Amino acid sequence: MHADILVIEPGDSGSIKVDQVREAIDRAAYRPFEGKRRLVVVDEADAMIPEAQNALLKTLEEPPPSSVFVLITSRPDVLLPTVRSRCQRLRFGPVAPADVAAVLMRDHAIDAAAAHAAAAASDGSIGRALESSGDDVNEARDAAADLLQGVASPSDPRRRLDGARALVAGGADRDGLSRRLLALASLIRDLGLLHSRADERALANADLKPRLQGLLRSYDGDRTLRAFATVDRALWALDRNASPKIVADWLALNI
């Protein structure tokens, strides 16, 4: 079944004005040009000013027979109670990383490595994956995987510090190191999933599965938990203005 689609979204001011809502209501009153239904999507519905929300109340209570109104928001509590009471709430969970990567490759012509790297950093959001699908995220994951491999078995502190230097090389700024630490946390999380023999469809870095499986002997369950906690502490220190070099050195010696 085909449907006409009308999208209302915030303007340059960052808000949705009452005139935008009234225009959509007027259009919804007419039969759609194509198909049997008209879909009116209010994107970032929490951006509607109170007057715009009030203008929508009667239509939400008695929508035109050929139109469906969908309000999308990550902050439903910002909407007026009178609006929320007239809507059926549907919750959407995060999209699986493999599915995010598939969308990036299929619909946006992003190569496989970059798509999987962006998907791993997206927290299940295709929009966030698109925003972070540049070379920085892909490079961050490569650097994190190299560090994990480099410190897997060597007990020599000098070799570990070599790994730290590689971690900050070309990305010694705070944001660059933060990206690499987040990528490292994602890889360690996947190690934990493989150890627990959980559903492998939940792997954030499924394309690196063979490489991760090769690390399982070096990272048993206990070490994997300690490594994840170590990365978390490193991110905490970095967020509190610790030196990126010191954070990287400490991480490499303790992971």
How would you summarize what this structure contains?
This protein has 255 residues and is mostly helical.
Features:
mainly alpha, 12 helices, 3-stranded parallel sheet, 255 residues, 3 strands, 55% helix, single chain
Beta-strand percentage range: 5-15%
Helix content, binned percent: 40-55%
**Main sheet properties:** 3 strands, parallel
Radius of gyration: 24 Å
Calculate the terminal CA-CA distance, rounded to whole Å: 54 Å
Q: Low-confidence spans: pLDDT under 50, at least 5 residues?
A: none
Name the helix and strand elements from N-terminus to C-terminus, one letter apiece. EHEHEHHHHHHHHHH
Care to count the β-strands? 3
- Total helical elements: 12
* Main structural class: mainly alpha
Average of the residue pLDDT scores:
87
3D shape: elongated
- Looking across the biggest beta sheet, what order are the strands in? 1-2-3
3D architecture notes:
There is one protein chain. It is built from 12 helices and 3 strands. It has a 3-stranded parallel beta sheet, with helices on one face. It is mostly helical. Strand 1, helix 1 and strand 2 (37-42) form a beta-alpha-beta unit.
Strand-helix topology:
Elements: E1 3-8, H1 18-28, E2 37-42, H2 50-61, E3 67-71, H3 81-84, H4 97-108, H5 112-120, H6 126-131, H7 135-150, H8 157-168, H9 174-196, H10 209-213, H11 221-239, H12 244-254
Parallel strand pairs: 1-2, 2-3
